[in-house]
């Protein structure tokens, strides 16, 4: 089923493999005398239409990287000289250079000139222009503001300077929160990684607490921030903000590299396990030697299956495909991964993912598997409904076959659409989709069986409508912004996608005609 299915199109309910059972009698009261139905659904198989295409679900998955000097929208780096001040054009370039499949980008803004002054309005306007480019491309940012570039002498900013800048930037981020997935802590040290700042604020719990409290207080509702090191997070003395503070691992090598601390041998491993359960997690590999002459460059292939196990264990939401792009990422693209390998590695196996419609085994590339399972991956399993006396009671069973639970709050609604895709009835279910848990962590003693089934329940009160066939849908919209690209699409071939609604069943409504 094409990702471009539009509202109002005549979209079939069952895309090939779903099964429906219904019973009931048509009434004459403009609604129904009684009807019951059950529809079972299946996942996306490789030989389905668009079965190997990325599922563009928001705020999770692979990402690119782009950097701007806020003063003039030039890039601070020689290898980004071809990047444009027009962020949409830069994203077009990144898609060509690194291949499609990402809907996120790391976005650095360097504030070197303004480290000890206010950020001028011209620079704030430049930042807003970049956000507008992301919006045109339907991307979201893993956002970081930085003073020190690791090349020039570190700037002499204070806690008060950082707090002032957060106050200036907060309204801008709030206005553009539809294109910001996470606002990383940043600011301190080289590249905003919290090491090597001039005054070493990152080593003082009082300074860390002040900065992080100011940042979390500035975050839009539901948004998280991230720090690189568990030791720095542990310095935060304000426990009230910790539920919004996750991690970013900026040197993922599965423990072979000196600067990858996200490993079982690290004394902070339990902290990483605990925090990543429900806070946002981002990662990147080192640059490889084809990309960088830096001494920390890494040119050994980081193997795909162990990578998947680590990403799943630490509940990663996003990962760069710009880093190690001439060594590891090409290996992932050309190396097969089978269902047997995934199961042996205690990794999630999405329904039908490694099987064609005849049941024959079909390998996927490691790249595909990682792309499709980073973050959440919601599958509908079954939908049930009972219609009587203008009341539609519905239940929808879902499972999460991704690496991580959803981490941003959003409404969970049941809706009824007419043949043109218009909503004729809707009900907020009150369900918290962040509780749709994935299966146990691969590198722990968790239960590694199937992920738990969650059931969404709701009742829709139907207005008097013409007789006909209507469509019951599960909607997971953005809480603040309209748009199908900001809603969550379920990973099913048998679920039609109609203007941001996952259609899970047909309902025959009787009427006077």
UniProtKB/TrEMBL annotation:
Residues 1-59, 437-457 are annotated as: Disordered. Residues 58-230 form the DUF4874 domain. It holds the Pfam family DUF4874. InterPro entries: DUF4832, DUF4874. It comes from the Bacteria. Residues 244-492 form the DUF4832 domain. Residues 1-13, 20-41 have a biased composition (Low complexity). This is DUF4874 domain-containing protein.
């Amino acid at each position: 089923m094409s990702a471009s299915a539009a509202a109002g199109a005549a979209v079939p309910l069952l895309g090939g493999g779903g099964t429906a059972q219904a019973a009931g009698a048509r009434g004459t009261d403009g609604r129904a005398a009684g009807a019951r139905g059950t529809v079972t659904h299946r996942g996306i198989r490789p030989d389905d239409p668009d079965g190997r295409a990325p599922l563009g679900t928001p705020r999770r998955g692979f990402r690119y990287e782009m950097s701007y000097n806020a003063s003039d929208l030039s890039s601070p780096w020689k290898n980004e000289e071809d990047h444009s001040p027009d962020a949409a054009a830069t994203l077009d370039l990144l898609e060509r250079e690194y291949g499609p499949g990402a809907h996120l980008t790391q976005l650095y803004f360097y504030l070197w000139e303004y480290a000890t002054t206010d950020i001028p309005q011209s620079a704030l306007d430049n930042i807003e222009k970049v956000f507008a480019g992301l919006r045109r491309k339907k991307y979201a940012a893993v956002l970081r503001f930085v003073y020190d570039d690791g090349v020039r002498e570190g700037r002499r900013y204070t806690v008060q300077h950082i707090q002032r800048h957060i106050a200036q930037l907060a309204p801008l981020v709030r206005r553009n929160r539809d294109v910001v997935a996470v606002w990383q802590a940043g600011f301190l040290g080289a590249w905003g990684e919290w090491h090597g700042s001039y005054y070493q604020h990152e080593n003082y719990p009082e300074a860390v607490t002040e900065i992080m409290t100011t940042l979390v207080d500035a975050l839009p509702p539901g948004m998280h921030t991230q720090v690189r090191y568990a030791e720095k997070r542990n310095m935060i003395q304000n426990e009230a903000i910790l539920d919004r503070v996750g991690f970013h691992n900026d040197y993922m090598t599965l423990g072979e590299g000196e600067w990858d601390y996200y490993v079982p041998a690290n004394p902070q491993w339990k902290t990483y396990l605990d925090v990543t359960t429900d806070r946002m997690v981002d990662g990147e590999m080192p640059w490889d030697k084809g990309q960088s002459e830096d001494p920390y460059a890494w040119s050994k292939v980081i193997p795909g299956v162990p990578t998947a196990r680590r990403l799943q264990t630490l509940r990663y939401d996003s990962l760069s495909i710009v880093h190690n792009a001439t060594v590891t990422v090409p290996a992932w693209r050309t190396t097969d991964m089978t269902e047997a390998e995934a199961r042996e590695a205690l990794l999630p196996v999405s329904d039908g993912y490694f099987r064609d419609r005849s049941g024959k085994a079909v390998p996927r590339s490691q790249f595909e598997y990682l792309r499709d399972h980073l973050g959440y991956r919601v599958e509908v399993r079954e939908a049930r409904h009972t219609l009587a006396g203008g009341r539609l009671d519905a239940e929808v069973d879902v499972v999460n076959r991704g690496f991580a639970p959803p981490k941003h709050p959003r409404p969970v609604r049941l809706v009824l659409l007419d043949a043109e895709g218009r909503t004729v009835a809707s009900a907020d279910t009150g369900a918290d989709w962040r509780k749709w848990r994935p299966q146990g962590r691969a590198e722990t003693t968790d239960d590694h069986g199937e992920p738990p089934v969650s059931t969404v329940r709701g009742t829709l009160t139907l207005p008097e409508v013409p007789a006909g066939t209507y469509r019951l849908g599960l909607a997971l919209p953005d809480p603040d912004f309209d748009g199908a690209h900001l809603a969550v699409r379920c990973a099913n071939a048998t679920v039609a996608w109609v203007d941001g609604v996952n259609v899970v069943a047909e309902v025959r409504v009787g009427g006077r005609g």
